[in-house]
């Protein structure tokens, strides 16, 4: 093969790998395994697709972004919490959460009060309007989930949820192991991403 050129894959090779399934990384690198064989890559693709589905469902009907909806939904089950706790449970950086919460406060969906345990922070909770909106979108979200999981039986759906919970627990332990060994500059760069 000439230098500087890469072998182009045939259409069959590409379609075989780009299907809507997870190939399970059963292939060895010698047999042509690539990034699509990684669970984490497939998970990122699914998460991105899920976010786009949510955006097309939520924004036109409710005028919210998926991130704003996630903040409302997480705040609904947490109750009243500081910003940092809301960010942690939402999977967002504190800076992203701060901007999103400010917008939601301005729109009247989130209320804030002084934190009696820490005078430097505030507690966030859903306003009555935010609670009503959150419930309506949650009902729609369950319908979206049914569409996304339509090819799975109820038993398979329960198995999938349990497997994802197990992978999340294992991944969390792995993350904390890596975090404890990371340098301060690496930790800072992660927080800024």
Verbal overview:
The protein is mostly helical and 193 residues long. The protein has helices spanning 11-17, 39-62, 66-78, 83-90, 94-106, 128-148, 154-181, 184-192, and strands spanning 81-82, 110-114, 122-126.
Give the SSE map.
Elements: H1 11-17, H2 39-62, H3 66-78, E1 81-82, H4 83-90, H5 94-106, E2 110-114, E3 122-126, H6 128-148, H7 154-181, H8 184-192
Antiparallel strand pairs: 1-3, 2-3
Helix pairs in contact: 2-6, 3-4, 3-6, 4-5
Please provide a brief summary of the model:
By secondary structure, the protein is mainly alpha-helical. It is built from eight helices and three strands; from the N terminus they run αααβααββααα. A three-stranded antiparallel β-sheet has the order 1-3-2.
């Amino acid at each position: 093969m000439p230098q500087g050129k890469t072998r182009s894959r045939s259409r069959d090779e590409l379609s075989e790998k780009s299907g809507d399934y997870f190939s399970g990384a059963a292939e060895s690198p010698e047999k042509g395994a690539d990034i699509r064989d990684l669970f984490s890559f497939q998970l990122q693709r699914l998460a991105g697709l899920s976010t786009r589905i949510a955006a097309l469902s939520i924004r036109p009907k409710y005028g919210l972004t998926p991130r704003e909806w996630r903040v409302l939904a997480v705040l609904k089950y947490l109750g009243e919490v500081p910003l940092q706790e809301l960010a942690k449970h939402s999977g967002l950086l504190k800076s992203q959460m701060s901007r999103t919460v400010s917008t939601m406060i301005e729109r009247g969906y989130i209320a804030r009060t002084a934190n009696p345990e820490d005078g430097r922070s505030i507690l966030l909770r859903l306003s009555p309007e935010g609670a009503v909106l959150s419930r309506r979108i949650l009902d729609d979200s369950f319908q979206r989930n049914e569409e996304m999981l339509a090819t799975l039986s109820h038993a398979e759906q329960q198995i999938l949820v349990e497997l994802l919970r197990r992978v999340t627990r294992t991944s969390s332990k792995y993350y904390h192991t890596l975090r404890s060994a990371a340098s301060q500059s690496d930790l800072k760069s992660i927080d800024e991403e």
